[in-house]
Amino acid sequence: MKRPVVFVMFFLILGFALAGLYWSQRRPKSNPVSANAIINMAADAQRDLSRIPMHFTRLSDEQEIAVGKELAARYATQTRALTPEEEGLEKYVRRVGGAVAVHAHRHLPYTFTVLPDHNMINAFSLPGGRVYIGEGMLDLLMTEDELANVLAHEIEHIDHYHCVERVQIEAQMKKLNLDVVGALLQIPLDVWEAGYHKDEEFEADREGMHLAVQAGYSPFGAVGTFERFAKLCDEYVIHAKSPDQELSELAIQSLMGYFRSHPLPSERLAQAKRIIAEEHWEDRKTQKAFRVEYEVQNGQFVK
After folding, report:
1. 58, 190, 214: which is closest to 124 by C-alpha?
2. Any idea of the CA torsion for 231, 236, 238, 241, to the nearest 10 degrees?
3. Does this model's pTM top 0.70?
4. What is the pLDDT of residues 239-252, one digit of tens each?
């Protein structure tokens, strides 16, 4: 699409958005709309327009699911079997993730997998609905609401086509024909563990909070997570504070990689607090305990 046409469409969308805002303000009982809401609306419109060429060549849901299945098979060969205790943890993650995913716009076969590695402080998603979370990330979470917000963030990377667009971009760069069996083998797995463009990360944060709230969770789960990330960033990246807890060298490397591939925790925290104020969610502070239920027989964890 030619650039002038893109600009015309952008200003048309922005014009309609501002017109809608104008008419909503004329209603006597309407809620006030902040300047940040208008900025977010314009940013979303511009970002959507920049992705129009990708939209026309986007994989179908069926193709995306097939790609995700093939990539997931590669991950399965690189991880060990879960212990009964870890299976109990994964069952819990699946329950929370399933409660959140049912509110996603795209009805995909969402699945949730725990990667049994306490040094892996990360979560990521694959095209087609597959979400992964490392045990190191789970170790940092204090409430079920924090877990729900982390999983909702990853769901939104899928829901908003960030994952599948990355497949298309990688295929274009490497001149891959995705219809050819084995073509995906040329895309390294660590591509999926890396973060996305800053705007896409903020979009996943923002929409993930809405998704978690729809599922009955507190938006302060996101606040608590970002506050903990900010503290870890101060301790291990900026070295402004002495660490309260000792992390292994591998965990520190994982944490550093996470911070390099995501916006600053302080920026994510500021956005989360702004959204809570804009949506009037200040009274939704109650959070559920992080509680995994295990079945024990003869003093041993069982499936």
Report:
1. 190
2. 60
3. yes
4. 766 777 778 888 88
